[in-house]
Design a protein that fits this description.
The structure is a homotetramer. Chain A is globular, with a radius of gyration of 19 Å. In chain A, helix 2 runs parallel beside helix 3 and helix 10 runs antiparallel to helix 12. Chain A is an alpha/beta fold.
Chain lengths: 312, 312, 312, 312
Amino acid sequence: MTERLSEKTKGVYIISATPFDDDGAIDYNSADSLVEFYIDKGVAGITILGMMGEASKMSTDEADAFMHYMMKRVNGRVPVVVGISDPGINNMARLAKSSMDAGAAGVMVAPMSGLKTEENIYNYFTQALEAMGPDIPVCYQDYPQSTNVFISVDCFNKMVRDYSQMVMFKHEDCPGLTKLSKIRQTADQDDSLRRVSILVGNGGLYLPEELARGADGAMTGFAFPEMLVEVVDLFASGDVERAKDIFDAYLPIVRYEQQPGFGLATRKEVLRRRGGMANAATRAPGPILSAIDHEELSGILTRLENRLKEMN
Amino acid sequence: MTERLSEKTKGVYIISATPFDDDGAIDYNSADSLVEFYIDKGVAGITILGMMGEASKMSTDEADAFMHYMMKRVNGRVPVVVGISDPGINNMARLAKSSMDAGAAGVMVAPMSGLKTEENIYNYFTQALEAMGPDIPVCYQDYPQSTNVFISVDCFNKMVRDYSQMVMFKHEDCPGLTKLSKIRQTADQDDSLRRVSILVGNGGLYLPEELARGADGAMTGFAFPEMLVEVVDLFASGDVERAKDIFDAYLPIVRYEQQPGFGLATRKEVLRRRGGMANAATRAPGPILSAIDHEELSGILTRLENRLKEMN
Amino acid sequence: MTERLSEKTKGVYIISATPFDDDGAIDYNSADSLVEFYIDKGVAGITILGMMGEASKMSTDEADAFMHYMMKRVNGRVPVVVGISDPGINNMARLAKSSMDAGAAGVMVAPMSGLKTEENIYNYFTQALEAMGPDIPVCYQDYPQSTNVFISVDCFNKMVRDYSQMVMFKHEDCPGLTKLSKIRQTADQDDSLRRVSILVGNGGLYLPEELARGADGAMTGFAFPEMLVEVVDLFASGDVERAKDIFDAYLPIVRYEQQPGFGLATRKEVLRRRGGMANAATRAPGPILSAIDHEELSGILTRLENRLKEMN
Amino acid sequence: MTERLSEKTKGVYIISATPFDDDGAIDYNSADSLVEFYIDKGVAGITILGMMGEASKMSTDEADAFMHYMMKRVNGRVPVVVGISDPGINNMARLAKSSMDAGAAGVMVAPMSGLKTEENIYNYFTQALEAMGPDIPVCYQDYPQSTNVFISVDCFNKMVRDYSQMVMFKHEDCPGLTKLSKIRQTADQDDSLRRVSILVGNGGLYLPEELARGADGAMTGFAFPEMLVEVVDLFASGDVERAKDIFDAYLPIVRYEQQPGFGLATRKEVLRRRGGMANAATRAPGPILSAIDHEELSGILTRLENRLKEMN
């Protein structure tokens, strides 16, 4: 069994795509190749069934089957985190238990859409955390651009105080740099408040700034995981300018993949072109690339290749 | 087999609650009694797995099992409509087919949250309708207060023109009276546009106005279905003032049940008190009545009883 | 000078419409008649330049001129509260000062649209309250259906603790009954927390329940202020069932006026028909009643008249 | 008098900041220096009182005074566009007329927040355009991230067909590249549909892709207008790879300024550091840079300087 998620978790946890064939069925051959692709790029862990994994479009059974398949394929080589967000607490707790039984390192939960006040958010997590029990490590996914649920640092810190299983903050509010700094500062200034792990999302669009402000790594689905790994490693070893040089080289495609909603189709296509999977299809309803989009992407990838050569 | 949904569908299609026990499991005994309760009150049809049915909190399997159970229990005495809204087109089409195979009269679809433009709404329905095929009658649920998806009459009419299976409009935008009138007027003025069935929601809060503007009935979950039935019948028979007297007598509880989100707990409690089901629990996360709420509800129900006596 | 807003404020503060002529200019003759209409109905105070007053569609100068005109017309007969919500703190503070100098009893502030977390709401009010200074009594308008800004009781209570000028809560969240009870309970259980005045909005749609839960009155624009006054008075004198009888008689029109956004046109038309003002026009862009709407409204008003006769 | 906005308008229209001093008053000396700064960088035009210009926080009089001041300072050297978005049609039309009388080239209008259907958007613009009359050229600002109003190409094209004064589309929906292509394609394929000018926003984050898809330039507030100018010019002259090299060099700061809401403070600080204005303050309520933010920005600017040197 791999290490469980904890306050000490570091590095790049890639958010895995879910490969589908043209009929919308899960393409398990591509699931195999994708796992090897990610591990080959040096990721510290893999997160499955996230928003980018199109989990909400899968049936309950499919999600469970895909989870078990991925756990087996990864086979303990790196920790696996499972996204379990669901409108029903029951379903959430069931998938959490099933995942941990299968050897997952922890689970990721985003607050349900429609939670309006921070009191509601706190109460919702109380229900979810108590349904799962204290032994399942939890990552709070703070992604209001998609959930439309907004939380202050005070409210998140209250969860950290009250629930020891809350060990990680997936940071992807935007603008969110001030929030990241405040989570770090409040924990630094208060011995009674645990310092949780912070991994950042948004495709890594603000990765250098976030690492400088105390993030421990990234949890996002950028189609060049090796960039995320290298930047995080270089930051850790103190070679910050080199890290930024690498980041800047990839920034045009980071930005391009970061188009809300639409970017998923781009990202799957890049993974396909790079051999990570055989089919770039998103499950319906999902974005589809036009001929212009394909050509535009090709241009960006060619420029990236040239720029990387130039830098060596 | 019962009549299928069509442009001619009329009357009260009650939206059924889904009964749960205290552990959150489906309470099938109460499902039995609820079916009898509804049929006993004279409803023309029953709609299951709607928003009020807490469908989004059920697993794929549970929803399918509940659908089959209810179909069997109703056993052709009235038509059954199945809510199939789901983030994934695949899941939606699968439940639609399964429901029709089991004898359903048609399906109800609300646009997926997150659809922003009317072009997006139209394209989403194109995908959904083509995945289901032309033989499944569809009701468009226009409930933007919950979905945050807004549609003009022009865009809905385009669907009616392009897809013959689009036979019903579940009207619950608010304010929405002008929209209802416009759907009727545009069809009246254009021979090439089918006049669809319109059933109204929102607990019937504007039922008299809506019937006067051309609605064919109601599809909502008000816990006194006999009021909806009587008002619709009296309107049909031309006794409009008596219909309004009845409606006004119930209005305090109509209004009270209509508190967004929270009203579901009230409605299930009323159904419990009236013998429709044994347990009023909502599945987590869901609203829970406090002692004050219970007492307040009792006061409203006592006054209703008195008012009804007074009127006879 | 009239009494200032305080924790002890009670009764009905009617939200005044702003009368416009057909060209959209302020109709000052109707402003005169409207003041007399309201005072004649027994209101305890008048609130001007609220959302219902179409304040956001007035220029800065117009708002200031209208405020001065109304202060002069009311002439100290009842307290006047001024809505000062504005995207800019400067403008807000300027109108607050100008209003208090002219003899206003206090000001009403809704949080700016776009505030996402409760930390942001608190910080926004800190800026606003400090710009106005401690001597201007403030009413917090909690109307998330319009502002899309949601606040927990804890965050509101923090403002009450930190700013002595925060003396009133205008309650119109929906569902909001639990929130109202919680504001009362938290103050009852904690001597260090002031018990603020709570006046309710939403056209009075839940007035009996709100008064039973501890509201001190209403601040809303229902076109029959005498109903609000009578219900509040009867509750205060303990004649609760009679209060509810009155309320229920008016409920069909309360409900009808409460159609979000659209209801303003109805309300102004009722005020016009009742002699409150000469022209029911809303300023563009605003709702406009169709012939069907006019007829529908007539029917509701006729039934109200009949019902009131029947009750006496 | 300068050229008026038309379908042929091209190049970079910089969105001007509004400089404030520490008390929140307009800093007119900085307005002078800012005009010179922009013209010196080679912009084709200047847009004032946009969202970035904090127009909604100015009083009606201030906005009018600032407009007149800027018109006089620019003094016909480049065309000036005036943002006139306002909740009231009256105010909007008044500022439009006042601006055109003062020599403006045209006006920019964003749809009012709260418009839900495309029918509502169309009707709103009908009211606005008819209030202004056919002689004032209008730019439609499509910025749903801020307005929460979403429009399809079909609805925009209908405005273009029905109102000859609709001559420009300010493109800043995101994802929005497909929309831009579709506006161009629909006009190319239909002789009866005018080809309008498209200038792009979002700080230029997708400028190369947008120019390749047929945009005529940019209308945005990026603090290095010379980059926008050079990229647009190089694209026009066919030197696309050089244009992308320049763009990529600036991309780290483009991205950094593009943090929603917060970016305004960064942008004003960059303008201050570059000598464009004496004070970077935003008017309350507005974002404020922390010490960490300042240092982070310095690092990004130093790297930009180095990268630009390296490229020459």
